[in-house]
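S1.2 Input.
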Amino acid sequence: MKFAALLTAGTLSLAVTTLHAQTDVSPNLGAGVGSFTTDRYDPASFTVNPGVVQGRNDVLQITINTTTNAANRPAGFGSSFYNTQGKQTTVNTAGSWLFRSDLFVLDDWRVPAKSGFVRTDMWATATSGASFATVSAYPIIGFSNFGPGGARFRGWNIVGAGGWIDFASTVNFGAWNTLEMSFDAPSNTFTYLVNGIVATQVSDVGPPPTTGVANVMYQAFNFNDANIQGGPPNLDNPDYTVNWSNTAVVPEPSTYALMATGLSFLAAAARRRRRAVAA
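S1.3 Output.
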């Protein structure tokens, strides 16, 4: 009892210093698609609550197939810009914020020869000013198996000309993976996390400075485009469906550290007790 009380007290005292002050702007994916509107172009389907998927019923499904490839889109939407297909929802939140969801990564996505090319991302429109009208950055975190990096999680570098940052994070295939982006206003820092562990941090150098977030969105990518750079013509890329879900409750990185500290405290106390008994 004494050691357990000691661990609890030590954990509590540390927890006070590691609280996050970010507003969670993640959509409730069990609430329907009524609040979502098209971003760039509608995918073949964008469905909330399709039934139980991989053990969950608060699921958003995005399906990509040839019906929305460049050749089948109407005039004015044929460019590769509209290969990114999904929907957004307005959040209009000032200050620090976070956006996170779980993505189910199929085992077949390890090898494009089995699954075809797959890419899906969470986006946010970071903004400057009280009206949420001035875009300051587009932070993105997601999964892709296209290109020389193979199957990996990655994030968008919001500094300068941008560019993808491939993460060293472990991909849990055949399982739900938690992806998160956050913005810390006091330090002007964007953080990308995979399964509760920081993958990378990017400083927002502006201008304009980020002061909030206007909307968040879920996207997938249509590879049925012969003009895609970095690969062969992909006009026969297989259809695929991605599944996003509300995030299961997992410890934040600070909580993991907290647990480790507490367990070390408990182990040290146990060693002292054994030495005292032996003496």
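S1.4 Remarks. The helical segments are 2-15, 112-115, 253-278.
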